[in-house]
Amino acid sequence: MTLPRRGLAQWDVPTRRLVLASASPARLRLLRDAGFAPTVSVSGVDESQVTGTPAERVLELAVRKATAVARTEADALVVGCDSLLELDGAPLGKPASADQAVARWRSMRGRSATLLTGHCVVDTASGASASEVGATVVRFGTPSDAEIGAYVATGEPLHVAGAFTLDGRSAPFLAGIDGDHGNVIGLSLPLLRELLTKLDVSVVDLWS
Length: 208
Hints:
Blueprint: E1 17-20, H1 25-33, E2 39-40, H2 54-70, E3 76-87, E4 90-92, H3 98-108, E5 112-123, E6 129-140, H4 145-153, E7 174-178, H5 181-185, H6 189-198
Parallel strand pairs: 1-2, 1-3
Antiparallel strand pairs: 3-4, 3-5, 5-6, 6-7
Helix pairs in contact: 3-4
């Protein structure tokens, strides 16, 4: 028996709205490149009061962000995310200054750390939600002090968790990763699919 093929034209209009509860251009780019057309609604959640282990922090913040935006959206699937780099058990978010970014890179080079990204999806139509943490090991290379200084001077590491990007100027200073690359950038597409499946939503029905 041959099943009918679904034409590409049938994916022109997704059956559900997807809302990204994040101002991250990297997360938005990941979703768009994967065939989604999300709208963006920034949660405005205060991140300073969250405590716990790094994994607990990113999960709680992802849930808070998705839940906050879900209150303002009808019949939508809201995705919230939050990322931290865990090194020696300590959570490392965005560096507060250039000096801190330099010090962090000097402490990370030649070592491995784990990039944790909390994910939460809320279905505002049913009120159901699903959440989980993605983890990817990042192996740092050994950039020189001069290279670190030049990288920090670009300003890039001041705007991202862990003070590095997988797909930006710091890419030459990374030895490799073990796990999903999207999780390092800010959103794991395989994990997003798993969470949608738990909510009885097929990822292909969100393609545009």
